[in-house]
Amino acid sequence: MATEVDPKVRVDKQPPMLGGDYTFDSLTKKITNVIFAATPKGWIIGFSIAFMILQVLLVSVTYLLYEGIGIWGVNVPVGWGFDIVNFVWWIGIGHAGTLISAILLLFHQTWRTSINRFAEAMTLFAVACAGLYPLAHMGRPWFAYWLLPYPNTMQLWPQFRSPLEWDVFAVSTYFLVSLTFWYIGLIPDFASIRDQTPNKFLKMIYGALSLGWRGGSMHWHRYETAYLMLAGLSTPLVLSVHTIVSFDFAVANLPGWHATIFPPYFVAGAVYSGFAMVINLAVPIRHFYGMKDFITDKHMDNMAKIMLTTGLMVFYGYGVEAFMAYYSANEYERDLMMKNRAFGPYGYFYFALLFCNGLMPQVLWFKRVRSNEFILFGVSIVVNIGMWLERFVILMSLQRDFLPSSWGQYSPTFWDLSTFFGTFGLFLSLLFVFCRVLPMISIAEMKHLLPQSHVHHPKDAHNTDSHTPHGGSH
Amino acid sequence: MEAPKVKTYGLVAEFETPTEIVNAANKAREEGYTVMEAYSPFPVEDLHEAVGFKRTKLPYIVFCGGLTGFLTAMTLTTVTSGGAPSFMTPYIPDWFYYPLNIGGRSLNAWQAFIPPEFELTVLFSSFTAVLAMLALNGYPKLYHPLFNVPRFSLVTSDRFFLCIEAIDPKFDIQGTKQFLESLDAFEVSEVPE
């Protein structure tokens, strides 16, 4: 072994993040063949189910547009109901995709490579589901463009001091930047598909999507520079998005909402639920598409560790919330926290949330749990339920504000539930289509993980063994 | 039938490993060739330097994009909210002036404008990064002479290509071909325009 550490091969010191023995060619074919192969039966069944659930969403939204938001359970003290709970939940799920694609890239975490593509897709689809709720809640969604600042004959402008207007900026920027980030990641892979397919029609479509990519070295240099800058821009962006989402609550004076812990703990919670969803998607993908060489057990282990870490941050957030309510000596905060949140209406949700987000994920301390993908899958579902409960519990502070005379009660209606159920149809249908027509793992980036992708300079010929930790040939 | 005289875009040599392509590009540069480009399935470290490209000016363009985004958002939020300095008031058109009294707060509540300013900075920078990258690279360009070389389709799979273009002052179809063959290329072919 070499005695000095060459900074360029530092990544190879980590355990292999790629199983099997691939060449550039077999790796390309392995990923593109998923697109060229005949549609698997399982895909047809899965997509049909997802597509049926999507119809539930369409019916719910159609009825909503016909009848108005009176069909939901929202009422006077609880002006936001399932719509904001689900909005925050879905958008939080999206955050893991950006974390994987941007923050882990900046930290040189090579294991992000095989999961970033579908995690980014998950981000886009989750944000699409999230965006539906505020639009639907408008009652007149065809006036949604009123949210945007544009010169108009009414000479009106949005209220730029409002967190809800900040949300418009944050969420739309987030969606657009995630989309471009995803797309430029796809460009070289579109070119791979263009060059692999024998089908003339597919060649035209993917060729057009690839914009004619040829992989010139100057092109790659600019491409990598742009990619890195997008990662650098997305990192503060993703933190800002959930911060601003938390401002929707924290800027209000309402007891239970008016807390400075909200931004960090919302961001941690978003990453927490997002990683849970990535695990929920990674397990079936590696299972049904035979991608265990690419999404290895080490990946699952790493994701479980991030989930555990962010879970502890979230748990700490609950602790701070409770402590600050007590320590503030503000009777409204205290009553909300001690009486209404824990023992008032939906008090059992609070304990369920502590169980799902606080206690249950502690099993992830055990290696045996982290290495069993089925248990991991189950834990992730529990975490996602827990994170949904968290938003619901926070929202239910609206039931109990300062004046008992203005207290009320919220309960979701059938249409609340059906809309939420339906968004799963949208999310899953889009994911199924994505797995069918796009490379679900980044081809060009995966090649970087192969030992033969490194350039050998004559001067470091003496330590070539550090380049080949898993026996690749040159 | 005698073929009409085909214009040549250049000569392309195929290589099998990243190390070979970097060495070949270095040798071509040392030989005095200036107009060439190396193609690879993934970014190969230092390859752009081997073909004689220093660094992209993309970061400066992106900085300008971000600055534009910030200034746009700052103007938009401050001026429409009536927060611009009073000497500017006569010059602000009616349609761009919509002061709102929210709880008696200052019209120039600049802290509250940070979120839109930040988001537009990020949005403009990101779009500038992507669009400028594509523009500098000359995309979209669905046709390129190199696509006439059948084996060039392997560039997105596992092969590496070095193309010396005909506009290179040192280009000479016979001499350059011999030079490329001397680099242990897998195959050297002519690229018809």
Helix residue percentage of chain A: 55-70%
Helical residue percent band of chain B: 25-40%
Spans of chain A of 5+ residues with little confidence (pLDDT < 50)? 1-5, 9-13, 461-474
Mean pLDDT of chain B: 88
Number of strands of chain B: 4
Distance between the termini of chain B: 20 Å
* Strand element count of chain A: 0
Top CATH class of the largest domain in chain B: Alpha Beta
Shape of chain A: globular
What value does the Rg of chain B take, in angstroms? 27 Å
Major sheet size, sense and barrel closure of chain A? none
Could you state the order of secondary-structure elements of chain A as H and E? HHHHHHHHHHHHHHH
Q: What is the CATH topology of the largest domain in chain B?
A: Alpha-Beta Plaits
Number of domains of chain B: 2
Detailed description of the structure:
The complex is a heterodimer of chains A (474) and B (193). By secondary structure, chain A is mostly helical. Chain A is 65% helix and 0% strand. Chain A has one domain (18-140, 158-449). The longest helix of chain A is centred in the middle third of the chain and has 34 residues, at 163-196. The relative contact order of chain A is 0.18. By secondary structure, chain B is α+β, with helices and mostly antiparallel strands. The mean pLDDT of chain B is 88. The longest helix of chain B has 24 residues, at 114-137. Chain B has 5 helices and 4 strands; from the N terminus they run βαβαααβαβ. In chain B, 38% of the residues lie in helices and 12% in strands. Chain B folds into 2 domains: 8-54 and 138-192, Alpha-Beta Plaits, CATH 3.30.70; 58-137, no CATH class. A 4-stranded antiparallel beta sheet of chain B has the order 2-3-1-4. In chain B, helix 3 runs antiparallel to helix 4 (114-137). Classes of the chains: A mainly alpha (474), B alpha+beta (193).
